[in-house]
Amino acid sequence: MKLSISQITTVTQGFVDDLDAYAAAGADAIGIWESKLEEDSLERFYASRLEAAVAVPAVPSILPLPLMDGPADPGERVEAICAGIRRLAPFGPACVLFLTGPGDDRAAILEGIRAIADEGRAQGVPVALEPIQREYAQFWTTVSSLDEAAALVDEAGADCGLLYDTWHLWREPLEQIDRHRERIRGVHLADWREPTRNTNDRVLPGDGVIDFGPILDALRWDGPFDLEIFSDSELPGSLWQEEPREVAARGIEALRRTLSTASA
After folding, report:
1. What is the DSSP code string of 222-264?
2. Residue 158 half-sphere exposure toward CB, CA atoms < 13 A
3. pLDDT digits (tens, 9 = 90+) for 44-79
4. Within a 10 A sphere around the Cβ of 243, how many other Cβ atoms?
5. The model's pTM
């Protein structure tokens, strides 16, 4: 099983420091965030010998996000996502994810999915729509399950995969994984703190309440497992308050322990 860390996990570090920290921790891959890229990032990436897991464009959603800056116009946002796909493509990521964003402009969402899928195909990069869990959906999305995301992609008639994130989908029926397993293009792992205090309050796998074993067995995932930690630095116990290299090392160990709970 390949182990990866998404760069938001060590949000205070730059790209090169992330490469060094993840490699030192024993990671096989890095989940690249376009917002961290610098002029020499591609060269540094290849020198690191890490693979690229799930990549995230600087503008990640079709409709505006209340908690993130970016253009207000959906068309401009889709253009930014497509530009991000072109910029991320040379890294060879497992996929580039995107969100719908919250709102009721369904026509813009469907048009955006089609354009993003077309750009992914043109660049030879899989793209994946990520459903976001229901409790905080009003900040991020119109879809909160694999079923809902798949139905939306089908309505768009687009060549677009799905992203599975344990923090978002752990309470959804495992049967949905069975239905859509072949469409999953990336997997994010994080655990659910109990109680969870806001939309950015994740913990390392094994430090929360998720039972990962059945999820991992259902996924049968053979790609990189990408640790993705959002953590509000203003809250006590936030992982974003800790030294990034230490978080990376602990994160890889947490991934190893968690993945060992899957059936052989």
Report:
1. -S-EEE---B-TTSTT-GGGS-HHHHHHHHHHHHHHHHTTS--
2. 27
3. 999 999 999 999 999 999 999 999 999 999 999 999
4. 12
5. 0.97
